[in-house]
Amino acid sequence: MFASTITSIIVFATFATFPPIIFAGSTPTSSGEFKCTPQKSHTTYPNQCRILEIFNYLANGSDEAFFAQVAPDVDWTVMGTHPLAGEYHNRTIFIADTLERLANTEDPSNPLTLSVTNIIGGGNEEWSVQELHVLGSCKNGLVFDNRYAWATRWNTEGVIVQARAYLDSALVATAITENESVEHHYYDQRTSLMDGPIGLNCVAPS
Ligand SMILES: *[C@@H]1O[C@H](CO)[C@@H](O)[C@H](O)[C@H]1NC(C)=O
Ligand SMILES: *[C@@H]1O[C@H](CO)[C@@H](O)[C@H](O)[C@H]1NC(C)=O
Ligand SMILES: CC(=O)N[C@H]1CO[C@H](CO)[C@@H](O)[C@@H]1O
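# 2-acetamido-2-deoxy-beta-D-glucopyranose complex -> structure
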């Protein structure tokens, strides 16, 4: 009884402290930050100001608010040739296998930040493209300065139902290969899995 209470506290503390959030808050005024032009008329899909608001949740540590706008059975493909690449069909698994795996390689004293540099489309277009800048350091000091382009398909409720994420594969592969703890757990439930340099060393979360 006593021991199990201690265990619960330790488990809770572990999850509550790392990774606390996927991206640490970035300075909203940093140069290159996207500014949307407000649109007054109603659009079928989220307009650029709404898309910016949704992505700013991810940028400022409000992960739950961001992922509330992603369908639980989202079809999310991470493009490229690196250990995180593949097609995911489940929001929980996508988060654990890509964003949290990467966050696990970061140096907590210089965590990864995300900022939105451009948004293309949206409004009456079903698809939009978000150009993102992710910056921070990995545990071994590797500067993680990556540019992402996420092509997203929205439904009429303003929820992302499909995405194709393009990024610098070589940098992601280096970050994972050089910094991932062998004890870091994630799922392995992708289709069209692309083997990375460290192969399929997946362990189901306990
Ligand atoms: C994060 O961004 C959202 C959307 O722009 C905003 O509503 C929210 O207040 C921000 N939260 C923090 C903690 O900055
Ligand atoms: C996603 O995977 C998690 C973990 O296996 C599971 O609990 C959840 O029900 C799945 N969600 C969907 C929409 O399939
Ligand atoms: C080169 C380097 O510092 N690698 C580290 C990356 O992170 C793992 C997990 O914390 C360490 O074991 C490595 O030493």
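# post-check
The pocket of 2-acetamido-2-deoxy-beta-D-glucopyranose (ligand 2) is lined by residues 72-73, 90, 92-93 (CB under 6 Å).
Residues 1-19, 192-206 have pLDDT under 50 and may be disordered.
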